[in-house]
Amino acid sequence: MSAARRAQRFAQSWVGLYTRGLDERIAGDRQDEIASDLADHFAYSRDAGIPQESYASEVRVRTMLGIPADLLWRRHHLERRYGDAYEHYSLSVRLLGLSATGAVLAAVLGVVASVQLARSAAAGTQWRIADETVSLGVGTLAVLCGILLIARARTRAVGMLWLAGATPVTLSAAYETLLYSSTTFPQLLMLVPYEAVLLQVVCAGAGLFYLGAALHARPDPLHQGGTT
Amino acid sequence: MVRRRKGELLPLEVDILATGLDLQAEAGFYGFALALELSGDGERRLTAHGTLYKALSRMSEAGLLESRWEDAASAETEGRPRRRLYRVTGAGVRALEAAREPGAAGLREALA
């Protein structure tokens, strides 16, 4: 396959992707319009003696620079097609993305702190080891369970509720562990003003965020079927 | 990203209206010809697909442009996909004139 054809395939694959789920006529019109543009661009390049590689490169750049506009255009048409249902869906997707990102970060922090704690124990440092081990272990495992729970639509609300408790516990335990067992973490903290207050705000914020997400993800009784 | 006030034209949209008026003969103008003209006949980079066609779509919805698909048979004769042909409407001409006024004070009235 030539460079020009590959670039055209790339552009058309992207169009196929962002027009998915739109009204058939609108999606078809956009796909046909881009196909026409690509053919006209190719004919112009050929007639002007522009090498195929340059044409291919320009098609890729035109496609990639247009991605933000394509996504806004898609969103506009989804909103028009699905109205409030799309708004709810869009918010759900964003909440799920934020929730999963926050939980993964908390889990990573928990694992890092656990490793640091293990190293510290191996080096013979005995301070508060039991407290931190329990909090970190339980917290990190709970966050990992929460990630599994929010991955399934049926258990998402429970998972969010679960994370509302597990995330602050893990963050707090990881902070305490790293504060006393790491040499670099306290130095980094010196760069942050009011770090203890900030930790409390972050923990409370995470808890409230997951509570809100749990409320949003709770099953809609109107769509449960069953009795009237 | 450029934020617009209601009824305001973006610089690209002003350029599209001005260039479209120059390009449109009887049949109208099409996307790639417009992109080429906007780039100064290839002097600058061609407008990105998404940027160009989103602007054309929005302007059509706003009534500044009207479009129709080229006859498939004539496109087939030339061995290429059919083009979507645009024309600047009367509202588009008025919007362009308003945008070109000093301070573009009358633009919103023209678009209203």
Compute the number of helices of chain A. Answer: 9
Q: Report the radius of gyration of chain B as a whole number of Å.
A: 15 Å
- Give the class-level CATH name of chain B: Mainly Alpha
User: If you average the pLDDT of chain A, what whole number results?
Assistant: 87
CATH topology term of the largest domain in chain A: Butyryl-CoA Dehydrogenase, subunit A, domain 3
Q: What is the CATH architecture term of chain B?
A: Orthogonal Bundle
Description:
- The complex is a heterodimer of chains A (228) and B (112).
- Chain A is mostly helical and 228 residues long.
- Chain A has two domains: 3-82, no CATH class; 84-223, Butyryl-CoA Dehydrogenase, subunit A, domain 3 (Up-down Bundle).
- Chain A is built from nine helices and no strands.
- In chain A, α1 runs antiparallel to α2 (24-47), α1 (3-18) packs parallel to α3 (52-65) and α6 packs antiparallel against α7 (156-181).
- Chain A starts with a helix and ends in an 11-residue tail after the last helix.
- The relative contact order of chain A is 0.08.
- With 112 residues, chain B is mainly α.
- Chain B has a single domain (11-111), classed as Winged helix-like DNA-binding domain superfamily/Winged helix DNA-binding domain (Arc Repressor Mutant, subunit A, Orthogonal Bundle).
- Chain B is built from six helices and two strands, in the order αααβαβαα.
- Chain B has a two-stranded antiparallel sheet.
- The longest helix of chain B has 13 residues, at 11-23.
- Chain B is globular and about 45 Å long.
- Classes of the chains: A mainly alpha (228), B mainly alpha (112).
- The interface between A and B is medium-sized, with 29 and 26 residues.
